[in-house]
Specification:
It comes from Neglectibacter timonensis. This protein has 74 residues and is mainly β. The chain is 0% helix and 36% strand. Bound molecules: zinc ion (ZN). Zinc ion binds next to loops.
């Protein structure tokens, strides 16, 4: 996959997370729970993490992954 920002080839791999990952419209200071419809809880696991297959551009730092296809880690 080519990086849509710089056009260089992206490296595939896995974005690995710990318990909670959220993409929120504004920076939440305490809880990462969604506050409105624009907020997305990407992964929430009590004791494990979640892995996402994706691509990284080491040139400009972009990471692309599908947050709906998380893989539970045991
Ligand atoms: Zn790039």
């Amino acid at each position: 996959m080519k990086c849509f920002k710089c056009g260089k080839e992206m490296q595939n791999g896995f974005l690995q997370t710990t318990n909670i990952v959220a993409f929120n419209q504004t920076r939440h200071k305490i809880s990462l729970n969604p506050k409105n419809e624009a907020d997305v809880m990407i992964a929430r696991k009590a004791f494990t993490g979640t892995d996402f297959q994706g691509y990284i551009c080491k040139e400009c730092g972009l990471v692309v992954f599908n947050y709906k296809n998380g893989i539970s880690r045991f």
